[in-house]
Amino acid sequence: MLEIKNLHVSVEGKEILSGLDLTVNAGEVHAIMGPNGTGKSTLASVIAGNDAYEVTSGEIIYQGKNLLDLSIEDRAREGFFLGFQYPVEIPGVSMTNFMRTAIDEIREYRGQKPLTAGEFLKYMKEKKELVEMHAKLNNRSVNQGFSGGEKKKNEIFQMAMLEPTLSFLDETDSGLDIDALRIVAKGVTALKSDKNATVVITHYQRLLDYIVPDFVHVMYDGKIVKTGDRALALELEEKGYDWIKEELEAKK
Amino acid sequence: MSKANEIAINLKQNLLSKIETRIKVNADNEGAYLSKMRKKAMEEFDKLGFPTIKLESWRKTNLKTFLERDYNIEAINKPLNSKEADTTLMCESNKYDTDLYTQFNGQWMKGAEGVTTYENGTIVCPMSIAIIAFPDLIEAHLGKYATDSNNALTALNTADFSEGYFVYVPDNIEHNRSLQMVNLIDSKDGIFANMRNLVIVGKNSKLRMLHCDDSVSNNTSFINNITEISIADGAKLDFYKLQNKDNESAVISSTFVKQGADSNFASNTIILNGGLVKNDTKVILNGRGANTDVIGLYLMDGHQFVDNHVHITHAVSNCTSKQLFKGIVDEFARSVFNGHTLVAKDAQQTIAYQNNNNIQLTKTSKIDTNPFLEIYADDVKCSHGATVGQLDTAALFYIKQRGICERNAKMLLMLAFVGEVIDKIELPNLRASMAELVGKRLKGELSSCDQCSITCAEPDKPIQFEIDMSKV
Ligand SMILES: Nc1ncnc2c1ncn2[C@@H]1O[C@H](COP(=O)(O)OP(=O)(O)OP(=O)(O)O)[C@@H](O)[C@H]1O
Ligand SMILES: [Mg+2]
Q1: Which of A31, A211, B182, B455 could covalently link to B212 via disulfide, CB atoms 3.0 to 4.6 Å apart?
Q2: Digit-coded pLDDT (tens) for B122-181
Q3: Residue from A11, A50, A53, A172 to probe ligand 1 pocket by mutation (most atoms less than 8 Å from CB)
Q4: Domain with A153 in it: what CATH number?
Q5: Measured distance CA(B242)–CA(B198) in Å, rounded
Q6: A70 vs B contacts (CB less than 8 Å)
Q7: Is the Cβ–Cβ distance between A20 and A7 less than 8 Å?
């Protein structure tokens, strides 16, 4: 579904991703872990199409298409979803209008007929229940005045609404209480199928108790340096990242 | 001397001789009081001439290119032909649920040409009639508020005006029908006109008005209109102004307001379009407990120009005022905001707030903003601020990541930006229509029929951003 080959990315002349490879197939759940500032969010942003970053070489193939050729919105319409590490507050734009506009455009892109206002509201209600989101959030401006946890839940709500094929969830578990974590995980699990895939970026292995990954990757210095299964997450939790660095040094 | 310059000089001379003749002819009808006022104003205008950018208050507003055009100063007195009358008749059904009074190329349309007297005693009529029919009210109010004596355009208006609207609400009346006063220009004649309006709201009365400056086709016109407003003790006036002029039109629209104790003035000006638009709003808070809100919104593009000047005087203590103007300026357009709040020495316990926020969409557009406080009292709460910014790129990225195209992403942010002003409109129909008009304007979909606020066409389907949860 997603194939990233030798991806190099810089911002303001500074290289942040330096030869990253990653393959994700339908039906899989991947976890990416790694120390602060190693480029995890940058990777997610580049896949989403954020033009603050310059792709200097490498390629990203998504469902057979060269993703780098597509606009931000077309990537989203093709089924890519990014759960932001820092969801943006948009004063004056209500959640309802925001989601309505998004769904209308995505359906149009896919040649589906638009939902009526009634159908849309019914659909939204279902998804809200799925992520146990309070009704009142819908009439508020997007993320404005939301607590940290509410913002993260709102990302999952949007993911549920948009039914993406490939989701990157960037630290969606950070700042969540145990109940919220369970709800988020439940949302992700409920949306999982053999046709879509999820990549979670996280610092905590506890998320992986709820969302069981098929692969765990360690990112270091702009590259994926190690890939394992769930046991790797436990090992990282226990031992930290020093041993990875040592392993890398030894290889050199 | 250049041809253009010559035209401007001739314009002044032609106006002066027209005024002189008119004063003589009308001396008997208008009464000595008005003749005297006009004569004095004519002399002032003669002395001052049209304002130039050498004057401090006109430094940013250059009328030159608009004055150096061929105008017909008599065109405004031309009776409508039957075809024109028919065209506008089509527009009689209006969607704002207001009582419509339309002036088309200066002439009053059917139904508005005489004196309308409501059961509660409220009167609406053409200014030309009011001068004759209600001389006492006219003498007591006309020219009493528009008193900025060194403004040539005020002088010119007083000297020359022949038409406009007159609205009178007696004391203790809650007038429940909103009045919509439309000044629609659609003429190839090169109309140059001075129009004068007077609104008197009696003690403890309430009125809501929608004032529309419209023009439909891209024909040259220059409209200088003045609205004088008296709001007596305990009275409330909501004054919405919608301006939708074409790019060849200049409109100078000045509003002078005097407020009594515990009175309320809420002015909301929405400027969708216009070659040159200048709105001066001058308010004097003259009785304790008075409140005034002067807010507005401008959306300019192309080579359009807008100047909003708000001057609020806190003459006495315990009054509150608020100024809020928001603008989106695109392409080569320019906007000017001058906010001036004057707090007199004894105006203690004043609360005054001033704000002007702008989104500058292009580097080639230009925004000037000058919020200004002049305070002589010591026990006051005053604040002012101004911002010029771009659309939030992080928000744009976030919105587009959800599958929304660049254009609609910008639209969502712009509508959100202007929402603060539109949400203040109290009439639900009007609020919805304004939101729709603004949405269309931002999308560049304002059709020629929308250009006219008395839209006769079927209201379009609601724009996709608007789902009112309360109605579902
Ligand atoms: N727009 C930008 N401009 C300049 N530097 C940037 C920009 N975005 C990211 N960086 C830098 O790139 C590096 C990687 O940042 P990134 O946010 O991808 O890290 P991360 O792995 O997600 O870290 P964390 O675990 O703290 O979220 C950091 O050094 C960061 O400062
Ligand atoms: Mg990060």
Answers
A1: B182
A2: 999 999 999 999 999 999 999 999 998 789 999 999 999 989 999 999 999 999 999 999
A3: A11
A4: 3.40.50.300
A5: 18
A6: none
A7: yes
For the purposes of burial, counting CB atoms within 10 Å of the CB of A175, is it exposed (0-12), middle (13-18) or buried (19 or more)? Answer: middle
Percent of chain A with pLDDT over 90: 71
A93 interfaces chain B, CB cutoff of 8 Å: yes
Q: Which residue range forms the structural domain that includes residue A36?
A: 2-251
Please state the pTM of the whole predicted model: 0.87
This complex has an ipTM of 0.96
Say how far apart CA B462 and CA B472 lie, in whole Å: 14
Q: With 50 as the cut, is the pLDDT of residue B460 above it? A: no
* Ligand in closest contact with the CA of A221: 1
Question: For the segment B2-55, what is each residue's pLDDT rounded down to a tens digit?
Answer: 777 788 889 999 999 999 998 888 877 788 899 999 999 999 999 999 999 999
> Cβ(A77) to ligand 1 under 6 A?
no
Residue A17 Cα to ligand 2 midpoint, Å, equals: 13
Quote the longest CA-to-CA distance of chain B: 72
CA angle B129, B130, B133 (to 5 degrees): 85
Q: How far is the CA of A14 from the centre of ligand 2 (A)?
A: 17
Longest CA–CA span in chain A (Å) reads 62
Size of interface A-B (CB pairs under 8 A): 92
Closest partner residue to B464 among A91, A101, A121, by Cβ? A101
From residue B406, give the alpha-carbon distance in Å to each of A60, B400, B402. Answer: 22, 7, 11
> What pLDDT does B6 receive?
83
Q: Is A40 in the pocket of ligand 1 (CB under 6 A)?
A: yes
Bigger pLDDT: A189 or B1?
A189
Structure confidence at residue B153 (pLDDT):
96
Q: At B31, list the tokens.
A: 């009464």
Measured in angstroms, the CA of A252 and the nearest CA of chain B are apart by 39
State the Cα–Cα distance between residues B181 and A55, nearest whole angstrom: 58
Q: Can you tell me the distance from the alpha carbon of B416 to that of A150, in angstroms, rounded to the nearest whole number?
A: 22
How many Cα atoms occupy the beta-carbon half-sphere of A38 within 13 Å?
22
Mutate which of B393, B404, B470 to test chain A, going by most A C-beta atoms within 10 A?
B404
Q: Which residues pair with B389 in a beta bridge?
A: B359
Quick one: tokens of B331? 């392409």
Structure-token match 């000047």, residue found: B309
pLDDT given at position B457:
35
Q: Residue B345, SS3?
A: coil
Q: Is B445's pLDDT higher than 80? A: no
Closest CA to A184 of A202, A166, B451: A202
User: Positive or negative CA dihedral for A55, A57, A61, A65?
Assistant: positive
Asked if B286 and B270 touch (Cβ cutoff 8 Å), the reply is no
Q: Which two tokens stand for residue B7?
A: 């035209």
**What are phi and psi for residue A53, nearest 5 degrees?**
-105, 140
pLDDT digits (tens, 9 = 90+) for A143-175: 998 988 889 999 999 999 999 999 999 999 888
Q: Which atom of ligand 1 is nearest to the CA of A16?
A: 12
Q: Select from A73, A93, A104 the Cβ nearest to the Cβ of B464.
A: A104
Q: How many domains does chain A have?
A: 1
Angle at A93 between CA B337 and CA B240, to 5 degrees: 45
Inspect the interface and report whether the beta carbons of B398 and A102 lie closer than 8 Å. no
Give the integer Cα–Cα distance in Å for B298 and B311: 18
